[in-house]
Structures are given as structure tokens and as C-alpha cells.
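Check this.
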Amino acid sequence: MGYLSKIDISKAPKHIAIIMDGNGRWAKKQGHERLYGHNFGVESVRETLKAAKQLKVQYLTMYAFSTENWNRPKDEVDGLMDLLVRSIAAEVGELMENGVRLMTIGDTEGLPEACRNELMEAIQQTKDNSEITLVLALNYSSRWEITNALQKIVKSVKASELTEEEITIEKIEEFLTTRGIPDPELLIRTSGEHRISNFLLWQIAYTEFHFTEVLWPDFREEDLFKAVLDYQSRERRFGMVSEQLT
């Protein structure tokens, strides 16, 4: 009996975020360069998206490329950008067929033009789909996002569009790149690492974490189901005590 049969789909998280880690180590185990692992990781994205749809997840956010990733070897970065362009172009038909809306968070202006154009075209084509939203975090880091939000808030205050008293938690969230997207209830990181790596620091204030030893290219439906089952075994109190939840 698989994990899916044990899950209460009515209580599955509406938003799952994933740090896709381990592509390079997986490739080295196969005797190949790191980019080989990134190529195989694309299939894991497909499998995970399919599994999330079965659970009626509304948002699936994937950490695809961080601002810090520009520091990697140039050949790997160039290969990743090329892979992104080819993958997005190849997947649009399947996204449309499966009712997937594509969104992005991050500094997309800093992406190569070909990658940005392909991304924007896919977002436009899928904008009316409503089965599930796939959010790609591209050229993203949480510190960049929060800094960017603060700069915009300061400009609004200087322009008398916003007063200091109006700067609330809700107002700050309107300036984040995740505006309109609910906070994730579950964050998964693969490959056995136990770091957040500058990902959604504001949004994960009350998120449950699930860490798995599975390297990203090996991540499949059952791995997502296992993570959700683990999530459902926990009591989410949001600062309250157990008795207040009954």
C-alpha cells in the first residue's frame, strides 16, 4: 500500500515549496558532469507536479536558480540557462494540457534575454489555467526580495503614497514578489541538507519542514506523498497551545 492511500487529501497543504538539491552529487555518482544531473532533474519536476495535482495542491513553488548560483562555474551557469530555455519551451504544451498556470518570483530582469522571453511567453500562454500554479523561483533570494520590497516602500513613503502607520505585515506582503500567493504550509528540501538557503524567509514563518536524503533527480511521486503524510502527522499550533485547537 502506497503513501497516497494514507493521505487525507482534504487536509493536504495548499502550497508546497521545494528546494531541489542534489543534482550535482547525483551526476557525479553516475560519473558525469553536474549539468547531467540538472537535465535528469527536469523529469523530477514533471513527476512532482503530477503528484501535487493528485493531492489538489494549489501552488507548487520550486527553487530553480538563486542569485547566489551565478557564482558557480560559467559552463554550468550557461548550461543551466540553456536548459531552462529548452525545458520551458518543451513543456508549454503539457502545462496547457494539464491546466497548469506558470508564474515566477525573483529578479527576472537579471536573466539572459532568451530565457526571460521564453519564460514570459509561457506565463502569458498559461495565465488562464486553474488546476495548479507552478511558481518558479528564478534569480531569486529572500534577502534580495526583502531589500527590494523595502526600497519600494521607502519610495512610496517619500512620494506620500504611504504613511509610516500604514506599514503593516499585510502591506509589506504587497511589495513582495509572492504577492497574492499564500504562504507555503510545507517546505521540502532534498539531498539530506538542512538549510533554507535564502529561500522564502518571510513566507515560511509558520511552515513545516521536511528533509529527505533523496537526491533531486531520484525524487518521485512517492517521495512527495511521504512528505505530505509526514506533514499531516504534525500538530500546527501557530503559537497557540493544543487545547485551543480542539
